[in-house]
Structure formats: C-alpha cells, structure tokens
Amino acid sequence: QCIVYELAFGFPVLSVRIKKDRLAVIGFSEIHIFTFPSVELLSTFKTSPNPRGLCELCDSCHLMVYPGHQRGTIQIVNMDGSNKTDSVCQVHQHDLSCMALDQQGYIVATASSK
Fold it and tell me: Which of 8, 60, 83, 89 is least buried, going by the fewest C-beta atoms within 10 A?
C-alpha cells in the first residue's frame, strides 16, 4: 500500500468523486475538479451551501451534477474541453438530500428533505 497523491485543502472535504479522467473534491461551498491521474486543477465551482457534499460525475461523458444555487435545483455542467456549458433544473421544492447520475449521463435521480 502506498500514497500516490496527497492533496491538502483549506476546508473540510465532504466527499470525493472519481472517474477515469476526473477527480472532484467537494467542500461545503465549492467543488474542485482535477485531471486524473495527473492531478492538475481544471476548474473550481462555487456552490450554494452543500452540507451533504452532493456531486455526481458521469462515467462516459464530462457531465457533472450538483445542487444549484436556488433551493431544490440542480446544476448540470458539461465540462467537455473548453466549452463549459451549464443548465439549471428545478427538481424539488425543498433542499436536496441525495442524487445519482446514470453511467451514460441521461438520467438524474434526486430526493429532497421533504
């Protein structure tokens, strides 16, 4: 057993997501996206308060889904190359409690606190 990379952050890390070429480190109000396995910072996304560290990365494309800035919304970001595009979808009336994204990036499942 050995350490390949060690990253230090100035905030508590709430969760980590990894796929074949991306690594996402999720904090309370930001998400850092790194290349993988070379671990170079690609992007930082400011988020609304995200105490559960919710974030999903697609296995087969460059989609990322995380809670939006408005209550009950999700932010969908396409990080394909330099063409970062995003959209916001209203999915609940209350705060999100969990989410999942299918392997192809076609279906997002969410649940709210109520």
Answer: 8
